[in-house]
Amino acid sequence: GELFPNYPVGFSSVTTGVNALSVQYGDVIRILLRCDKSGPGCAMPHPMHLHGNKMAILGMYKFDEPYDESKFTSNPLYRDTITIPTDAYVVVQIAATNPGEFSTRHTICR
Which of 7, 84, 92, 110 is deepest in the core (most CB within 10 A)? Predict the structure, then answer.
């Protein structure tokens, strides 16, 4: 079934496994990070860290809010780590200006 209501065009719905995104120097990419456990019910906020680059945080929304680019901030914060609240999603944008292979990871200490 559909993993995200009204999933934005151009976003992948892959949620498990090892996935590589290959981009060219200078490309600008958007990533939708979600904490919803394929629907409401994510147990705790999830910090996501990106190595080697900074993410422009375009917007943070509750799970049931529609994806709407007109609501994106015009003056985004830049971070290498963002915490996704429970039952929410975050849209980030990255400019590929640092050549190399970088990973993103989710870190929760118990």
Answer: 92
Could you tell me the two tokens for 31? 């990533």
Tell me which residue of 1, 82, 86, 109 sits closest to 37, measured CA to CA.
86
CA 92 to chain centre: 5
Identify any residues that bridge with 61 across adjacent strands, giving them in sequence order. 89
**Among positive and negative, which fits the CA dihedral 84, 15, 76, 98?**
positive
What is the C-alpha separation between 60 and 91, in angstroms, rounded? 7
C-beta neighbour count of 52 within 10 angstroms: 13
Q: How far is CA 20 from the centre of its chain?
A: 14
Instruction: Tell me the percentage of the chain whose pLDDT exceeds 70.
Output: 63
Higher pLDDT, 29 or 58: 58
Secondary element (H or E) of residue 55: strand 55-62
